[in-house]
Amino acid sequence: MRPLGDSPLVRNDKTLVLAHDHGMEHGPKQFSGVEERLDPNQVFEMATHDAVTALAVGKGLTETYYPSYKDDVNLLAKLNGGSDLWMGDPYSPHNWTVDYAAELDVDAIGYTIYPGVNRETDMFEDFRPVQESARDHDLPIALWSYPRGQAVKEHRSKEIIAYAARLGLELGSDFTKVKYPRSKENMRYAVQSAADNRVLLSGGSKSSDREFLELVEDCMDVGVAGLAVGRNVWQRENPYEMLDMLEEVVFEGASADDVL
């Protein structure tokens, strides 16, 4: 891990990543009802909101849109990803390199692993040069740690999510994004298991304003460093209103009741 006090990804020791890798990972169906947001410019505009400390996108969106927003958006380069059309155990191949991302002047690196699948060892080995190259470029690393596979019977259980969080520390990331393990106390255990690694809550599928904000509040209460959220922001009719509320809950310690 590297010191992150001066990182643009951190404000008041907290982080809010706006994730927009869904076009690659899930396809256009994720934009049903908000088809205008198939235009990445709309989400890049959202990322200029004060609440957002980084925008996570892949190679194509970085090349095409980031030059117009470089002064206003901190970019987290998502280096691997696959489509929703693949069948079988998930595997997330490289789409670009740390060197190329650094050439495009990004602020951080993002990478996905699927612990527990048949190709776990390949993914861990794939991550090694990414992690070391990011260190060479002094770029912080966020690891998406999503256990899957035949041996993982309940991928949101207390022990599985704690293991996912711990793997971020063991593999050398600075942030580790994990799913919610179904209770506040289970998330506390995941944070404890990660030690000095910064755990980020995965925003997940869109839910009601209250349900989502209460979830974020609970996670912040037990020491989560922030969240990486996509659909719970940009699938909303008014994403800026949600970002306003998240800014208060994540960075100012407000409760869901305070902002609703």
TrEMBL record:
EC number: 4.1.2.13
Coiled coil, from the record: none
Domain of life of the native organism: Archaea
A Pfam family the protein falls into: DeoC
PANTHER family: 3-HYDROXY-5-PHOSPHONOOXYPENTANE-2,4-DIONE THIOLASE, FRUCTOSE-BISPHOSPHATE ALDOLASE CLASS 1
Family, as annotated: Belongs to the DeoC/FbaB aldolase family.
Protein name, entry field: fructose-bisphosphate aldolase
Source species taxonomy: Archaea, Methanobacteriati, Methanobacteriota, Stenosarchaea group, Halobacteria
